[in-house]
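Much of the work behind modern protein science is quiet bookkeeping, done one molecule at a time. Below is the pair of lines this work produces for a single protein:

***
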Amino acid sequence: MAQRQPTVSGQPEDEVGGTRAIGRALAVLGALRDAKGELAFTEIVNRLDLNASTVHRILRALVSAGYVSKNPQDRYRLGREAFLLGHAAEHGLGFDLVLPALERAAETTGESVNLVIRNGSEGVVVLRVESKQRLRFAQPVGTRIPLHCTSTGKVMLAFSDDPKAELAQLGRLSRETPATITSKRVLADELAAIRRTGYGVNRSERVPGVHGVAAPVRVADAPVSAAVAVQGPDIRMPAERIAELGRVVIDLAAEVATLLPAGWEM
């Protein structure tokens, strides 16, 4: 029997090819995830550094397995199996254990409450309880948010191991609204203040008229990679209420930290 030939890395060629194929399939799934909807075949190809025949082959396999669905207009989106996998991951990470605490906070404050985790240079909403009030801000689970202009993002930066290095890595701070902080010096001062108070505030910095108050979820000695926030319209969140909500999110974050299972952030 012929032996498999090793590559320069020492791995047999078929193992390297298999690893590459898995990476490409995950890249396709990631593109569909980030699209938050349907993509045409050409849109997927343009988003990835892959040739059309490779993408076509991957999509055909993913559709066959149920991880991607294709409609009659030849547009693609994540399929049922991807949904079930995500649901299982959410359960495995322990986020379902946190939901009752968020629901109580939403009931107490009358506002929407989020759990956000960090993913590189962004945050991702992984749990959300909507306010029951008619005037509220919609931010569905899966929404990806910038760090520099959101309350959850700022507290994750402030309580990172090295906030100065984190700021340097962010690059240019995009102006999302007229209230967005685009000066790294000003943002550094705010991060220092957040470390002193224990909570961070977003005052219409990402969406006009929407305020947020957040606190970091700190688990043992692990780096901070999650935060909880209360969000609402500016008319319901004057300065005196923001201070009150600061205490609410600090307590909520401490409770959430006790509910998440060990190793969830890995």
Summary: The first strand starts at residue 39 and ends at 40.
